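Quick one:
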Amino acid sequence: MEFADLEIGLHRRSEGHYGIELRFMQPGSDADIRLGGDAISVAINHAQLLEHQADPIAYGKTLSEHLFASADLRSAFAQSRASAATLDVPLRVRFFIAPSASELHSVRWETLRDPDEDRLLLTDERLLFSRYLAAGDWRPVRLRPKADLRALIVIANPSDLAKYRFAPVDVPGELERARAGLGGIAISELAEQGSATLNKIMATLRDGYDILYLAAHGAIVNGEPWIWLENEAGTVERTQGSEFAQRIRELEQRPRLVVLASCQSAGSDLTNGADGGFLSALGPRLAEAGVPAVIAMQGNISMESVAGFTPVLFKELLRDGQIDRALAVARGAIRNNGDSWMPALFMRLRSGRIWYVPGFGDEKQTFEKWPSLVRSLKRGQCTPILGPNSPKASSARLNRSP
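Output:
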């Protein structure tokens, strides 16, 4: 599938004021188009947004008013959507938040409303959204075949969570939801008490896993996310988010997708374990450490929403490997829930894909890549090599990797 691409870069100019750079790329083009010039700027009133944090609709309306207050930005956004519609391709929108504007990671961009209609903007399968992050790691991201996908489920439930005023984790429920969501993917689990240690997690990941699904309590302490993992005795082992990210960075083969799931309680009278934002703070650190895609919950998402969101996410992901498209469909499935904005995607993949099908596709399916092959032939990017006898003897050598 082809996409039009709009990158929205946000850079801090002064407190609450941000410069915006817009780059648009049409499918099949090696050139990007600069939109709006260099003078676009927006003002984000963080205090005003905080006043609406309990009301996602009011929050989204306020945020949209701030972002699209610039006529130039609004016009460029509309122009990009119209161009993608004319080409009959989805529009991939990436928010690139510069290091100078790191405070914008705490903004709930996923609540944005359509600037032309009073509806959610990011539940449309034709408009794919992610928070795009560059990484300091220069190692290339190599996709793996769909048939080889493996997932690791990690659920940390230390026996002494009550000391830290966290509720016990509903381990059977978490496992059931994760297994249901990851159906069709080979999975391994670290869910027994004493198994979700930092060393054990990293040692297991070295065996080669494409997806890490992690459910653990945590908190923000002095601006740093901490994860409540376990030690070998099954009690709390607090781990800094920066250390966790560094250990991920050091892996020879990092997961292509990390899902940071909000923990659900096991019915205790203690606090339900709201994460206080540590998951959404950990997400950018993992992306910067070289993880191609991270989905992090921005709050304590309800079990109802998890049950509706997760299975759709992975079902759609198995269709074409496009993580931002799968997320848009999954968010749309729970659009009527007040917490549908909570899943956030941090990504550093320009293609948006985390797997590919070698050759022409799954042998059990028809030759579904014919339209793409024809387009490549017309552009001079493909040399056909035809063989005798059966269709299986025909092949095409593409001049670029999948």
